[in-house]
Fold:
Amino acid sequence: SEMCIRDRRWIINLAPFGIMGLVYTNVAGNGLAIFTQYGKLLALLVGTMLFMAFIVSPFIMFIYLRCNPYPLVLRCLRESGLTAFFTRSSAANIPVNMALCEKLGLDKDIYSVSIPLGATINMDGTAIYQGVCAIFIAQVFGIDLTIGQQCVIVATAVLSSIGTAGVPGSGMIMLAMVLQSVGLPVEGIALVAGVDRVLDMMRTVVNITGDQSAAVCVNALENRKETRQAAKAAA
Ligand code: ASP
Structure:
C-alpha cells in the first residue's frame, strides 16, 4: 500500500499548478480589481474573527462566570491558540486544549467530553469563513443574492461547519457545499484557495477558543448547580 500511495502522489503534486490555472482564469476574467476585493475579504474575515474571539465569546463567558473573562481569553489564545494557528487542526489541538483545561482546574468529566466533541462539531471560525467567502464569491461573479438565499448560506454554513473535520483545509472543501446550496459557481473556490493557508490558521484559532470557552461555561454552570444542590441538602 506504501507503493500505491507513492504512485498516486502525483495528483497532490499537480494541485499547485491546478490552483494557479484557476486563479489565472479568475484574474484574467476580473482584471486586477480582484486584488482590491481580496484585501476587503481579508479585512472582513480578520475583523469578524477578532469580533468573535474578543467580543462574542468573552460576552458569553461573562454571562456564565460573572467576572472579567479577558485574562482567561488571553491565556487560552497564548497557550492553545498558538498551536492551533500553526497546526491548523482542531483535532491535533485536542491534547493541548485538554492540558489547558486541566491547568485551569476544570472538571475532567466535563472537558474530556466537551473538548473532543467541540473539536469535531463546534467550528465557529469555519462557519464565519464559509459565509463570508460565499458572499465574496457571489460578488466577484456579479451574482445578486436575495435575502432568502443569504439565509440559506447562513444555515448551510453552520451545518457544513458541523460536518467539517478538524484537519487542515477541510473547511475550504466544505465550502463547495455552501456554494452549491444557492447555485453559486463552485469554481469560485479557486479565488480563496490561494490564501487558504492563512485563512485556515485564523479560523482554527477561533474554532478552538470557542471549544475552550464552551468548556469553561459548562464547568461554571455545573459548579453552580452543585452548590445549589449542596445548599438545598444542608437546609
Ligand atoms: N482547519 C480547521 C480546523 O481544524 C477546519 C477548517 O478547515 O475549517 O478547525
Observations:
- Residues 88-90, 123, 126, 164, 166-171, 200, 203-204, 207 surround aspartic acid (CB under 6 Å).
- The radius of gyration is 20 Å.
- The chain has a mean pLDDT of 87.
